[in-house]
Amino acid sequence: MTDAVVDTYNRHGLDAVVCIGGGGTQKNAMRLVESGLNVVTLPKTIDNDIYGTDVSFGFDTALQIATEAVDRLHSTATSHDRVIVLETMGHRAGWLALGAGIAGGADVILIPEIPYSVETVAEAIRVRARKGKRFSIVTVAEGAMTNSESETVKRLVASKEGAESKDEKKKASSDLDLFHEQHVDHTLRLTQQLEELTGLESRLTILGHLQRGGTPSSADRLLASRLGTRCAELLSKRHYGVLVAARGDDAEPVPLEQVAGKKKLVDPNHPWVHSARLLGTCFGD
Known about the structure:
Helix 3 (59-80) packs across helix 4 and helix 6 (147-162) packs antiparallel against helix 7. The chain has helices spanning 2-11, 23-34, 59-80, 95-104, 118-130, 147-162, 166-183, 186-198, 218-236, 271-278; strands at residues 17-21, 39-43, 83-88, 108-110, 136-141, 202-206, 242-247, 250-255. The radius of gyration is 21 Å and the shape is globular. The protein contains ten helices and eight strands. Strands 1-2-7-8 form a four-stranded mixed beta sheet, with helices on both faces. By secondary structure, the protein is of the alpha/beta class. The chain has two domains: 2-57 and 216-258, 3-Layer(aba) Sandwich (Rossmann fold), CATH 3.40.50.450; 62-147 and 182-213, Rossmann fold (3-Layer(aba) Sandwich).
């Protein structure tokens, strides 16, 4: 891909390339910079996991969709005394599940950054039932893992990083890929386990790609306009090799080498997590 872009860039005598996207885009943009191209990037992903920027455009729109889903699911949960499990996107970063869970009033929030115990989640639901609240909303990021699954991933990653030969590295990568393939339907297993452990009818809703479409929110439109105009200013000044990052109300250039290959994950002590705990939300830990 890099060779094709470089060829097109040179053939048409382009002055610069603007790359818009998530973490993969930032890594590819860094490769283009290393190939001698003038590049500026913009942060766009619903996962909100691009390192170096406060927020990415696309996140607010997806967050509103996920929050509305939590709101709508409250009706059926309360009417039928059910446990409703809602899966949001977020393979490694739990910003969507966390934000929607807080905004929508979920009773349990499970994210990749905080490994959970199924029994702890079930007990939180049973406690609610004993208090007369025979329904619960569980918001789960697709990459959320139990304590044992988290330890397995850590072990596999360590094996991959510590591999001394290509064969060992290839096997470790295959084992890691296999784990993620088997982990795809974990929310279905979680829903079944919660029904067995709580005795309450449990149902699963997977938002999937519904989170990636729709009309952009006003906040996302403003953010994209703000970062886009700053990008144009940087291009006019021939300031290349940077990500245009949202920093407070400002937009600042951040060197791509500080961004590429990194992810902005949820700190378990993040203020959002702290607020959710104060509201009585269970994280399963």
